[in-house]
Each structure stands twice: as C-alpha cells, then as structure tokens.
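Researcher: Next entry in the queue.
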Amino acid sequence: MSKIKTKHVFTSESVSEGHPDKVCDQVSDGVLDACLKDDAQSRVACECLATTDFLVVAGEITTKSKVNFEQIARETVRGIGYVDETIGFSADTCKIVLAVHKQSPDIAQGVNAETSESKEQGAGDQGMMFGYASDETPQLMPAPILYAHKLVERLAELRHQDPKTYYYLRPDAKSQVSIEYIHGRPTRVRTIVVSHQHTPDMQRATLEDLVKAVAHQVIPASLMPDDIAWHVNPTGRFEVGGPHGDSGLTGRKIIVDTYGGVGCHGGGAFSGKDPSKVDRSAAYMCRYIAKNIVAAKLAQKCEVQVSYAIGVAKPLSINLDTYSTHTVAEEKLQAVLESGEVFDLRPASIIRHLGLKTPHAAGWTYQQTAKYGHFGRDIFPWEKTDCVAALQAACGKKG
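Model: Structure for this entry, 399 residues:
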C-alpha cells in the first residue's frame, strides 16, 4: 500500500494509432473481431510483426469463420493512414506473410468446459491481473494517461477529418504528460511532450502551435497553468516513422494500454487474444470491479488483483487495495469480492457478463481497444457502473 505524498509529479505516455506497435495491435484485434463475428467460440492468439513494407501475421487460431487475414491487415493499415508508398510502409505495397495454425489441444482440454476436470470453463493460462480506478477524473482514470491519450487521439482525428489542412501530419506519434499532485490530487500540468511524424516541408512552429491548441482543448483549463514546459518534436525532425522507422510487435505497449504506470501490472498483453485468455478478460473484469467500487463512493481509488491457474475456473486469489481511501472497512469490501455475491470471477461468467464473445452485437470491437487505451472510454462494457447499487447494498452502505 502506497503512502500519499504531500507533493509529487507523475508522468504517463501514450502512442498514436500509427505507432508501429499499435499497428500490430490493431491488426491482431482485427483478426480477432473477424473470427468472433461468425464463430463466438473462436480461440485466437494472433501476433503481428511490422517493419519496412513488411507485415507478419502469426499465431494459434481455431475458428469456423472464414477469415481473409491479408485483407484485414491491409484494410487496417489503410484505415490508420499508411497509404503513401514513399514513406516506407503502405497498405498497398507491404508484403504480408501468414503463419497461422490451430490452438494446442493441451490448452484446449483445460479451457473447454466439457474436457476440463471441473466440467466448467477453466482459465486459458496462469497469471495475475490488475484493475484500477481513481476519482481524480470523470472517467475514473489516472489523469496523466487519460490526457496523454486524448492528445494523440485528437491529433489523429484532425488528420483524418481535415487532411487538406493537416496534410503535414503522418500517422506515427507519441505524447507524454507530467502532472503535479498535491495530497494525492492532480493540480497542474508541469510538462507536455509530443513527437509527431510529419512531411518534409512542415515548419516546427506549425506543429508547436497545433499541439498547444489541442492540449488546451482536451485538458481541463484548471490544470493548464501558463508555465507548462513544452517539448514538441524535441529532436527537431520526425520524418521517418511508423514501421519503416522502428519495427512493431503486438503486445509491446502494455502500460500505454492500461493505467500509464499507475498501480501494478501482471505482465500480460491484451491484443489478439480471445476472451478465454484471462490476461485480457480478467483484467477487464478487474477494471470493472475497481471502477464500480469508486463510483459507489466506497473508496476514492482502488486496485483489484486476481490470479488464476490454467484450466481452473475459480480464482486462486483476490486482493483489494484502496490506498487507505475506503469509506467502508476494506475487510468488508474484500469479503464481498470473495463471496461472489456481486461479481463472479470465473472465466465463463466474466465472458458472459461483459459480452466478450459478441462485441459486434453490442456495437463495439476489440480493434477499438487497440488504440488510445483499453480503459477510460464508455464504449466498452467493462466501463459501466451498473453494479453501484448492488455493491452499496452488499456493504451495508446507503447510496
């Protein structure tokens, strides 16, 4: 449990949809979406590698869906904005290599309900997963990662919506936001860093002006003092980027994907994995639990950890930490989680409760999670706060 400091600065980074690792995440999750669309029982572990005009799609996939892997990859790359053949990576020119086979039967026998020892769906792997929430922002997310995401997301929106005006913006970008906290509450932005790929003719001052304007749009004015330290393309130029400038891999941005370094991380990546993999589904459930606890005003901040063994349905452990911000006894909250009265943490129950096998039916996709973070956007079911009343009742606290 961390002690709240009187004053500290915390920094988080985000990367744009055009970052080479995020290109790979989006292709992997595009494959997952395609598999689940016509076969909700699909088992998918899809990995990608991207480099100069070259993309590899590999992994273990068992599905009844007819999936055109190459088409998904090219459409994803095109949608991101890699359509210029002169910059070293393009949807129409990149070579695509496929290396896909079926899931191991040794894994399947422990995960499938009919073959597992308990006769219910077991976890797809061992490991521990974490979820976090804090009331420091309306989205119940840590402020540094939330605003780092919003910076690159808004710049990408401008690039897509008005390509004539923002012709100089290319898809690859990074952001970094440092926020000063006093007694655990965000009070002011100290530093903003943005590195954005651009055309050769762009003037650095043009990007500096744009970044400052966007930052004032997406970060609350109360956090934006006059003396922010700005670092926009601090090396001076960023013309060579994307998979041509740096190779990309699925699952290499796990801190960007979660809470920006706040709290703990179990080490498992998300993209390209179907929900039988608790790396993904249990991390979503832990966020759901933590967010509902904070929304119910049972704590100001909360972290939930759960652990599993492969092939075993029931969690091995559940741990709760409210960083001494709880409004009911932590022991009571812990007992409520362990009882399963409000949240059932067996894999099949998580999948069913959050609708993780049929995202298309609820109007969201896994590919959407693969850019600008898996948490903090209300389009996803694990962001709902529909268990507030049940939690308050279970804890004997009136709303």
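Model: The CA atoms of residues 194 and 312 lie 44 Å apart.
Researcher: Noted, moving on.
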